[in-house]
Amino acid sequence: MILKSLSITFLLGIIICSLPYTCNISDLFSSSQNSFVEEMRLYSVWGGEGSDNLYDVCLTSTGDLMAVGYTESYVNDGKRDALIIKFDKNLNIILNKTVSVGYDETLLRLHQHDDYIFAIGWIEKPISPSGMILRMNLNGSDIRMKIFENSTFFDLDIVGDKLFIAGITGYNEDNIDMQIVVMDKDLNVLETWTWGAAECNETIHSIVCLGDMIYIAWSMKMRSNKTAFVSAFSITEKKFVWNTTIHTGDETIILWNIETYRDRIFISILQEELWDTYPVGWLSRIVCLDSQGRKIWNISLDYADETNAFGMYIDSFGIIHIAGELLDLYPLSTNILRKNISGWRIIIRRFIQSFYRPNRYHW
Length: 363
Fold this sequence. Notes:
The protein is an all-beta fold.
């Protein structure tokens, strides 16, 4: 994930900051000479003997970095505790908090709103997981949490003083529904919207709010068929305005991120690659839609034996930044590449290193 000119990548409990610069080397994607390389400037490592992961990071209004994930090295209860870490501008750790309710907890996404950090995730329980949302002030002295049984939360966005929290509810094996919970900043529930069909599993992967619209990236599984969609939902009218099919087939597909820039909608997709009926890896691509859900372009990010795109951020210049991993035969390295496609510059951050990905989607 990149915030303006500062690039921030998080995996395996590592925070890396770097500042891209231009050099005269051949573009690896085309004949042009426009390329970026990346010089690591700062990094910070936090962790112990267990698995420790950070899944999201944001730049706070005080100029510090806040990151969330989980720790298995420093736990109070169970095998895994939710983790919140705060870094100063030099990536010195100035705050770390673990949150536990006696099970295994994970925080996945976070946003700052006014003087609070809001983070969502889930709690693994023996029968079915629970969704959780956490509110913490910037110095970590005031933490409030709300738990939703039989739910898992995957994303959130904030419009005005309202939080929109997206995920799934219900853990009958053949009937999982998608839901959005609307809350105020004191974590009071204002509304809950649930959608689903009988004998189907629906999952909201990611959402983004723009004005009156919530753009929802979601998928549906019926028997062996899996279909991925992007839909526009009107907040005031409380109805779907349009629905676009992104993919349908036997492959598992995860719409990892959805973002907007001006009148365009961008979705980063992680799609299972099948040989006959056997999974052999993953492919990633970016799909661009207009404001009415019509497809404008579709780009495959096929730069290695396996390409896994996770985080996506679009800056104020319209540059799409993607963080993830490439798995191939090259030694461990870090590169940054750029390609001009239809007027859009796409920057791929390469980490040739595998890392733990949570089982977020229940196929």
